[in-house]
From TrEMBL:
<keyword id="KW-0313">Glucose metabolism</keyword>
<dbReference type="InterPro" id="IPR001282">
    <property type="entry name" value="G6P_DH"/>
</dbReference>
<dbReference type="GO" id="GO:0009051">
    <property type="term" value="P:pentose-phosphate shunt, oxidative branch"/>
</dbReference>
<feature type="domain" description="Glucose-6-phosphate dehydrogenase C-terminal">
    <location>
        <begin position="134"/>
        <end position="428"/>
    </location>
</feature>
<comment type="pathway">
    <text>Carbohydrate degradation; pentose phosphate pathway; D-ribulose 5-phosphate from D-glucose 6-phosphate (oxidative stage): step 1/3.</text>
</comment>
<dbReference type="GO" id="GO:0006006">
    <property type="term" value="P:glucose metabolic process"/>
</dbReference>
<keyword id="KW-0560">Oxidoreductase</keyword>
<dbReference type="GO" id="GO:0050661">
    <property type="term" value="F:NADP binding"/>
</dbReference>
<dbReference type="GO" id="GO:0004345">
    <property type="term" value="F:glucose-6-phosphate dehydrogenase activity"/>
</dbReference>
<dbReference type="InterPro" id="IPR019796">
    <property type="entry name" value="G6P_DH_AS"/>
</dbReference>
<comment type="function">
    <text>Catalyzes the rate-limiting step of the oxidative pentose-phosphate pathway, which represents a route for the dissimilation of carbohydrates besides glycolysis. The main function of this enzyme is to provide reducing power (NADPH) and pentose phosphates for fatty acid and nucleic acid synthesis which are involved in membrane synthesis and cell division.</text>
</comment>
<keyword id="KW-0119">Carbohydrate metabolism</keyword>
<keyword id="KW-0521">NADP</keyword>
<comment type="similarity">
    <text>Belongs to the glucose-6-phosphate dehydrogenase family.</text>
</comment>
<dbReference type="InterPro" id="IPR022674">
    <property type="entry name" value="G6P_DH_NAD-bd"/>
</dbReference>
<dbReference type="InterPro" id="IPR036291">
    <property type="entry name" value="NAD(P)-bd_dom_sf"/>
</dbReference>
<dbReference type="InterPro" id="IPR022675">
    <property type="entry name" value="G6P_DH_C"/>
</dbReference>
Amino acid sequence: MGFVDEEWFLSRLLVQHFTIFGYARSKMTGAELRNMENFVKLDKKLKEHEAGRVSNRLFYLSIPPNIFIDAVRCASISASSSNGWTRVIVEKPFGRDSDSSAALTRYLKQFLEEDQIFRIDHYLGKELVENLSVLRFANLIFEPLWSRQYIRNVQFIFSEDFGTEGRGGYFDNYGIIRDIMQNHLLQILALFAMETPVSLDAEDIRNEKVKVLRSMRTLSMDDVVIGQYKSHTKGGITYPAYKDDKTAPKDSLTPTFAAAALFIDNARWDGVPFLKKAGKALLDWRAEIRVQFRHVPSNLYSRIFGIDLDRATNELVIRVQPDEAIYLKINNKVPGLGMRLDRSNLNLLYKARYSKEIPDAYERLLLDAIEGERRLFIRSDKLDAAWALFTPLLKELEDKRLIPEYYPYGSRGPVGAHYLAARYNVKWGNHGVDE
């Protein structure tokens, strides 16, 4: 039970009789795996530990996608609880497109009910993502501003300062759009943009998220930029290209970077660009949401700001990782006899405000699955809506074998991403600049 945080026990979040079984498939042939007589043995072993008590079983199947259905079938038939609940955590990828995702859901529902399926996206368990709805719905200063009337654009940024590092074989089959944009960033966008739910009940929240996704325009190549990192020498060190990864095909066109402009066609968000970018081998490691507000109409201080009104724009930044923080950029007078303005931050840095260690996202989600709390897990209709947005784009990329823009390892990514943002009069927020 080494991976279970001690806090679970200290906080009395787990019942007294709690057992974790690790079950591997090593030394099994494909035929043996599909036969799965071993699940009968697992069921017998579990019953020994349950000792006649009411048993609740949670299966976390961290296994390759091609054997997932067989494992679910055998777990359901041979190792379900006879007198309690049985739940299964499903790790992404949830298919590769609309058809394969729908097929996966269809097969799962041959053996499980929807309320037994917990599709896990660990980014939804991040502390700052969890706090997003609290920030909006529990603070009067934000909710009235949460619309096209006051918000100019919203940016969802995910960057890693490392490459695939031997995982190119897996990554090449999915790419950055499937790996990050279609799930992590899109799920956070839905949470950010949803209408006020009727209650905090899981289904009420998930209903509102689905409405957001169904209101979004299907993505086209005109609103997308793709890139792939190339080798780069800096400080006497040569950083490898994506194609230098021995597990990646040498002729691969798989994007390691993507930027996209998305739009929600509803009354609250009509015309507001939601920009997303995600990439590997970039300048820094960060995940954040940046809300850029509109300019102050007829600003009295426009003469002082000059022509660069963007520097005078209020911005709310929610930094998901690292160094979790929420800060609001405001305009402020510099102390002194003259009238000189400065851009300052009202900053909530979590490690300074809260001494308690922030729980890992998986801890929260595993505990939610045990407790049957579904609001942070992905419902099948939400998954369908998410794939509907991206499948035509992914098909076009692969059918036409579109060539990505190459960018140096350790850079800010393709130049095309800046042109995409500029088309909507947006500048990407730069971490560490004027902050």
